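To: structure desk
From: M.T.
Subject: fold request, one chain
Message: Could you run this one when you get a chance? Sequence is below, nothing fancy, just the single chain.
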Amino acid sequence: MEKLGLIYKKITIFSLLIGITYLAFNISLTDLETVRQEKIEKEQYVFSLQQQVDQLNKEIGDLEDPEMIEKVLRREGYGKEGEIIYIMKVPEPVAPLSEIFNQEQRKSMIEKFIDFITGRN
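Reply: Done. Structure tokens follow.
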């Protein structure tokens, strides 16, 4: 009888150890997958930054060419000596006062609800 109890204890302890090992291994696999996904995202980010650096280096190299310098300066708003540059700013439209005063007067929530239900909104 005592041997049977001892065997049950050993089986229980062994089962607990296997369960704990499985849980620890499963959690570490989940963490590993998360880290792998983060690594892929970081590599993509580094690749996009490298492309931006390459593009900027190309633009810097292009600035050795006088025609390219002129093109960049014109894009930034500069002109040749003697040229007149006109910068037009378009104002935002403003609603006329007549439209503002002709708007519907404030309605109560009940009136708004009735207008919504009847379709007059």
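Reply (cont.): The CA atoms of residues 27 and 42 lie 23 Å apart. Let me know if you need anything else for the meeting.
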